[in-house]
Amino acid sequence: MDIYHAVSSGQTDTVRLLLDEGADVNARNVWYQTPLQAAAWEGEIDVVQLLLDKGAKVNAQGGQYGTALQAAAGTGVTKTVQLLLDRGANVNARGGIYGTALQAAVLRGVRETVQLLLDRGANVNAQGGEYGTALQAAASERAIEIVQLLLDRGADVNAQGGIYGTALQAAASKEDMEIVQLLLDRGADVNVQGGIYETALQAAAYRGITDIVRLLLDNDANVNTEGGEYRTALHAATISRNPEVVQLLLDGDLSSI
């Protein structure tokens, strides 16, 4: 039996037998890169322990999830994350689809895992992955408790990068009024440009969320900023077919004259 199959299916005794018979504990695989990463992703803590005891390289990099720690964080199995950290896993290793273990944990939405990684030295502002930062990922997932935790631990509310450009744009795109308000209260720049919608206002206008558009305008969002998928917030609003949002933007345009 292939060691990856045994690892992924949690067959601890079979994995031990294969290793005793000479199977390479660090055998490479295109998807997982190492058996340890496979075991971590599948949440097989007993297999993870066995592989580590047999000499698995805890910081081997590559594969879909970058490292075993990122794979474990992406499943939200805190005990596996704890084990890997205790065995020397680099909490700030970069790579893989999530960029960092912290961003992986945020996307899984397990606050306990996020807290553990931060307590063990995770860089709250590390860049990478689809969402650029852990804060943007949390905003995209509408995870307000994790957003609050990250901000309390020093997350840069205006960090740029990722598909939404900023956490504020992510929150606006996901129609989360509470997170938008929290980010603004914590100093988010309403007019930062970047990401697929260029501004938070354009994101909210495209979604047709009247209350968020009004909130952003009340916080001095520039109604005429150009760029992004729909060029302007007004154009985005016409696509959403929400006449109230269109009127708000037209009124905002007049007030800026």
TrEMBL record:
- One Pfam entry for this protein is Ank_2
Keywords for this protein: ANK repeat, Repeat
Q: Where are the ANK repeats?
A: 1-30, 34-63, 64-96, 100-129, 130-162, 166-195, 196-228
UniProt record, GO biological process: RNA processing
The molecular function terms in GO held by this entry are: RNA binding; RNA nuclease activity
Report if keyword Repeat is assigned: yes
Per its UniProt entry, which superkingdom is the organism in? Eukaryota
Which positions make up the signal peptide? none
Q: Which Gene3D superfamilies match?
A: Ankyrin repeat-containing domain
Name by which UniProt lists this protein: Ankyrin repeat-containing domain protein
Organism, as annotated = Corynascus novoguineensis
Provide the taxonomic classification.
Eukaryota, Fungi, Dikarya, Ascomycota, Pezizomycotina
